[in-house]
Specification:
Layout lengths: L1 E19 L2 E14 L4 E7 L9 H13 L4 H11 L4 H15 L1 H5 L6 E5 L1 E4 L4 H13 L4 E5 L4 H14 L5 E5 L6 H10 L5 E5 L7 H10 L4 E3 L6 H10 L3 E4 L7 H13 L3 E4 L6 H13 L23 E4 L2 E5 L15 E11 L1
Parallel strand pairs: 5-6, 6-7, 7-8, 8-9, 9-10, 10-11
Antiparallel strand pairs: 1-2, 1-14, 2-3, 4-13, 12-13
Length: 359
């Protein structure tokens, strides 16, 4: 029996610009890998985010196509993807996610078919100026979110103004997550942490560059709020190092960890080490978001998830089967493979590739 392997480079426009310290995003560049056995589709997705990762959409495309070209069957495809994982984790995670679902569906999703999954989400508060941030925060709080996430910009004075603004208007019972995306040095972070209110802050995410473990260890000793690592956490060795440095939270994402099975291993190991675990990628389509919902459920996670990239899109790639009501994402798995993906008009299929593969 043969299967059809399809790889797409898709450009998905956003509803509005997404502001990060590493740049402003107007559309998602996603690599989608589909395995079609004639009855169902099994997908994996990876969306490029240069500055967060060293990979670009172009390198991800070349890697996925290269793995496919050098493979005659799915076993070779898996082995090729694994061999490139260290250098190209985003691209190979898309391949390995699709393969994990096709080859290990019953093991992964046992008991989940037709189950309703409910996940509290962190609400994204976008905006550069304090005024824009304030307006968007009011809207997100009115929608029922209990955790708000604010992307810091790396501009010290502007970020201090933005932090003060949102703390002053915060409603009772709501917590804040601040994400620095590697944008601070030690002296800047000292001033930021003096501004942040520990009573209303759940965590501060990735303040330093990924290799500054020395600065991280020093800050963890005195920081009034818990520190979370994201860009620094890719594999089990990174978890061990974060544990040694005294970090409280780790951020896990399917796109970083080489497929569904390896991501579940990361969740289990992180929990055993005593970490609080945040799961979710805010830069991906509804395909990746759905997969992370499955991981959240299987991994029995509790912290508000961040698999909210689909909310930023003008249109998704699949039918409207994920809904967010009062800050809670609901998903009913009527058919675990869903059987159909639509590339609708507002989504541009920039490039595509097809190959028949042996099992």
């Amino acid at each position: 029996m043969d299967v059809e392997l399809n790889i797409y480079w898709i450009k998905s426009p956003l509803k509005k610009p997404y502001y990060l310290s590493i740049g402003t995003i107007h559309e998602f560049d996603s690599i989608v890998v589909l395995i079609n056995n004639g009855q169902d589709l099994y997908w994996g997705e990876a969306t490029a985010l240069p500055g967060y990762s060293w990979e670009t959409a172009e390198t991800m495309w070349k890697t996925t196509i290269g793995c496919a070209e050098d493979s005659s069957d799915l076993t070779e495809l898996r082995n090729n993807a694994l061999s490139f994982y260290q250098k190209n984790p985003f691209a190979t995670s898309a391949i390995l996610t699709a393969l994990d679902k096709y080859q290990n569906l019953k093991e992964l999703y046992n008991g989940l078919s037709n189950k309703n999954i409910s996940i509290p989400l962190a609400g994204i508060v976008n905006g550069v100026s304090p005024e824009e941030l304030s307006m968007n925060a009011e809207k997100v709080m009115s929608e029922g979110y209990k955790v708000l996430k604010i992307k810091l910009l790396g501009d010290l004075n502007r970020d201090i103004d933005r932090i003060k603004t949102i703390q002053e208007m915060l409603k009772p019972g709501i917590k804040l997550r601040f994400d620095a995306n590697q944008s601070y040095d030690y002296e800047m972070l000292e001033k930021i942490l003096k501004t942040i209110d520990p009573d209303t802050t759940e965590l501060l995410e990735q303040p330093f560059k990924v290799d500054r473990w020395d600065l991280l260890q020093e800050v963890v000793r005195w920081s009034p709020v818990p520190i979370m690592l994201d860009e620094s956490i890719w594999n089990l060795e990174d978890l061990k190092k974060a544990h040694e440095k005294g970090v409280s939270f780790v951020k896990l994402k399917l796109v970083k960890h080489g497929g569904m099975l390896n991501s579940l291993t990361m969740i289990k190991k992180a929990r055993k080490m005593g970490f609080q675990i945040i799961l979710g990628n805010g830069v991906q389509t509804d395909l990746g978001c759905m997969d992370e919902c499955i991981l959240y459920e299987i991994g029995q996670l509790e912290c508000a998830g961040e698999m909210n990239g689909f909310l930023k899109l003008r249109d998704g790639l699949i039918n409207k089967n994920m809904k967010v009501i009062y800050g809670v994402l609901s998903l009913t798995l009527k058919d675990i493979s869903l059987g159909s993906i639509r590339f609708i008009n507002n989504v541009c299929v920039f490039k595509k590739y097809k190959k028949i593969m042996h099992l």
